[in-house]
Amino acid sequence: MAMTAKDMQQMGPLTGFRIVELAGIGPAPMATMMLADMGAEVIRIERPGAQPLSQKTDVSLRGKKSVALDIKDTAHREALMRIVDEADALIDPYRPGVCEKLGIGPEACLARNPRLVFARMTGWGQEGPLAQSAGHDINYIALSGALRAFARKGERPLAPLNLVGDMGGGGMLAAMGILAAMLEAQRSGAGQVVDCAMVDGAAQQLWLMHSLRAGGAWIDEPESNLLDGGAYFYDSFTCADGKYVAIGAIEPQFHRQLIERLGLDPAQFDQSDRDGWPRQKELIAERIAMKSRDEWAAIMEGSDACLAPILDFEESFAHPANVARNVFVEVDGVMQAAPAPRFSRTPSHIAHGSRPIGADSVQVLRSIGYDDRAIAALGIDPLQD
């Protein structure tokens, strides 16, 4: 049957690729969410009967199919392997060695599907003294050196949510690794293992700090550098209403506009005078404290002063710039980020919101050759769809 124009519009750049996700939390689901947005068929393997509290509102489940299999059971494990036989990639969120113990490790999977990309998402990597140790985002970024820099002078570091380790250092790193390996497999016909570690990803994101430090332009002391709140022209400030603005006027021409629109004397501000930054920051803080956040936003509108209001989540959904660009979308009553990046010819899209656990078991099993009797033998009702 010929595809319609609507069908063509819904073909993202990864349409035709099948990716298996072994259910986990954090970075692995984020990676596959992005790949699903891009058109990949993502099949999430979940434990039968599991009822995670956030299932209905878990944004990372959007666009994915849910298959309920107990991979400790021989028959269910064979069903998984038959799905893997037809897959382009699999993402493993478990500790090193767990998949091998279950009989679904890289060696077993690649023996059946030599072109498979087997991506492994861990905190510490597959090898090394910490490989079998538990951890979370805050632990990985602590060892990478990143966490120490998220602090005010003389204060303890503040966790930057779980963005640097889990999401940037894990989810996005895994998505890129999977894409690169699938691209290579198209040329070579051979799959491979992709070892993604959040400590690696966090370290990758510090490339600029490493460069500055090597060049003598970074001091290992919080709030002493250009980008860590040390500079008066790159920091957040409190307004008259108790709300905040963010200033990032690094370039001289932007700095000049900032000082002018603040109504301050340019002669009192010298970006190159690092010793003077603390006093200059006091002057900025005093001026910012005279007006409300939204008043400053209005004053700076249309300029290159690089001052932005600091918004909470609800405010960010409604900000005119975000609304105009459709940065956020609502799916099944849940506000969330729209797919990114954006493609001109094969746009990403959200096929649907989260699905109940096992909602797609029958459809996926039929797609790999299981008939109703074989499906029923797995304890799955073939009429459930």
Helix/strand/pairing category: alpha/beta
| Multimerization status | single chain
- Count every helix, treating DSSP H or I runs of 4 or more residues as helices: 16
**First-residue to last-residue Cα separation:** 23 Å
What does the radius of gyration come to?
A: 25 Å
Helix content: 25-40%
Mean pLDDT: 95
Strand count: 11
> Strand order across the biggest sheet?
3-2-1-4-5-6
Element order, helices and strands?
HEHEEHEHHEHHEHHEEHHHEHHEEHH
Q: Tell me the major beta sheet.
A: 6 strands, parallel
> Beta fraction of the residues?
5-15%
Poorly predicted tracts of residues: none
Shape: elongated
Structure characterization notes:
The protein is an alpha/beta fold and 385 residues long. It contains 16 helices and 11 strands. The chain has helices at residues 5-9, 27-37, 74-85, 98-102, 106-112, 137-144, 163-188, 198-204, 207-214, 252-262, 277-288, 293-300, 313-318, 320-325, 361-367, 372-377; strands at 18-22, 41-46, 65-68, 89-92, 117-122, 192-197, 234-238, 244-248, 307-309, 328-331, 334-337. Strands 3-2-1-4-5-6 form a 6-stranded parallel β-sheet, with helices on both faces. It has a 3-stranded antiparallel β-sheet with strand order 7-8-9, covered by helices on one side. Strand 1 (18-22), helix 2 (27-37) and strand 2 form a beta-alpha-beta unit. Helix 2 crosses helix 7, helix 6 (137-144) crosses helix 7 (163-188) and helix 7 packs across helix 8. The protein is elongated, with a radius of gyration of 25 Å. It starts with a helix and ends in an 8-residue tail after the last helix. The mean pLDDT is 95.
